[in-house]
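Input (Leucine-rich repeat-containing protein 74B):
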Amino acid sequence: MVAGKKVTKESILPSVCEDEGNEGGKEEDLGGIASRPVSRPRSLYSRGSVDGQHQITRMAHQDEDHTNEEDEVDEGGDIQPGDGQQQERKSVSSVTKILTQTWNSTDFTVRVLIKNQRVNMRRERERERKKEREWADGGDVVSYFLRNMNQSELNMMHYGLGSQGTKALAISLVTNTSILKLNLRDNWMEGIGGAAIADMLKENCYITEIDLSENRMGEYGARALSSMLLENSTLFSLNLSGNHLDERAARHLSSALNGNQKLQHLDLSHNRFGDIAGEILGAAIAENAGMKSLNLAWNCIRGKGAIAFAKGLEGNIFLRTLDLSYNGLGKEGAVALEEALKHNNTLEDLNISNNRIPLEGAIHFALGLKVNTTLRILKMSRNPMQSAGCFAILKSVQANPETAVEFLEFSDICVDQEFEDLLESTKGTLPNLQVKHGGKINAVLKKS
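Output:
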């Protein structure tokens, strides 16, 4: 019977099974597993449980309700824990506090993550609604084009057409007879898209102005557009600024400038033209008989390229406006421009700001200005020619009885009192002359 009792006890739950008849506090061997005495308090942690929230709740209840045989009762009937039980209570309380803080910290993190997720979802919904409104207002390329295809001016810059979208647009524009001005700036059309526009302009004889700037067309697009310019006779304004054009593109454009006498305004700024391109374009400008304004700002024309371009300008008799700012003409370029100003009798607006022109270069340039009779606007700001260079320029204007100069700009160049005195005396003979400079030297020193 005893053996049978042991097997039954072991088959139930040997790890928590207790011998109710063992009053001596000794453990009875039940199937090789020691049972727990009755007097030992139940463990505060259940085996296999990892739920922190329920565990904390159960521990709190056990702290309040559980007493064991080691607790003492004082005279007033209150229960006082023994030393061992008090130590255990403190240990349990510390564990409870740590687990509670951990749970609260985790709960706070979860709340923050949920809040951020909701904020992001709300922002995403707002963006979607904004996009829908934009498309409803004309953000859709197709609907916008259909609404404006009968207008005289079509502005589609920043639409992200790409090469394929540009091809589709070009096909629609071949037979269009309403649009006269077309703006396709910053559409990432690249060379393929540029070629598609060039093919369209060979057939379309109504568009007179087109802006193809910031489209990264490179040599491929330049070659296609140059071929178009040899056939097109209606386009008089072309903007190719910021298209990664270099010496190879300059060779294609040179042939177009020699053959096309209808194009009047050409913008080639913010490209990669260097010395070789300066020589190529200079020779083309000398032969061109239709160009009225040319913009070559923000390139790298310097040295031999600057000299060759100035010689080409000397032979041109049609150009009215020229922007060479932010290149590197230097002293050599200024000296070459001296000869150009002596012989050119058509140029009216010249911008050579920020070209590293020193004092000596400014003096040479002034000698050409002394005999020029057509230049009205001269911009030479941000050049290291100092006040003496500005003085030489103004002195040449004053000494030229047939000068046409109306505006001089020397921005960011400080002038001295000698320049101010000369300016004051010049206004007596040239009352309409306007001069802009960086302020007087003494005033600038006082402010600093």
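The first strand starts at residue 29 and ends at 30.
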